[in-house]
Write a structure and sequence with these properties.
Blueprint (H helix, E strand, L loop, with lengths): L6 E5 L4 E5 L7 E4 L2 H22 L12 E2 L1
Parallel strand pairs: 1-4
Antiparallel strand pairs: 1-2, 2-3
InterPro entries: HicB-like, TA_system_antitoxin, TTHA1013/TTHA0281-like
Protein name: HicB-like antitoxin of toxin-antitoxin system domain-containing protein
Length: about 70
């Protein structure tokens, strides 16, 4: 499991919880609940890393070990 910071917040515009992974540019997921947004964010992290590896792009090291729920 990767230890990237995940920020989850409610978006009125999207009518969903948004989960952003600031250390991985463009890595964003959403869900109807905090739990679903978190689950989707974990999947998005894995896809982001898999894609970076495929193209030989650098993968940032996680800066911390915390999850932030807002």
């Amino acid at each position: 499991m990767y230890r990237y910071e995940i920020i989850i917040y409610w978006s009125n515009e999207d009518n969903a919880f948004i989960a952003e992974v600031p250390e991985l540019p463009g890595c964003i997921a959403h869900g109807e609940t905090h739990e679903k947004a978190l689950k989707n964010a974990k999947e998005a992290i894995q896809l982001w890393i898999d894609t970076a590896k495929e193209f030989g792009d650098p993968i940032p090291e996680p800066k911390g070990e915390r999850l932030i729920f807002a």
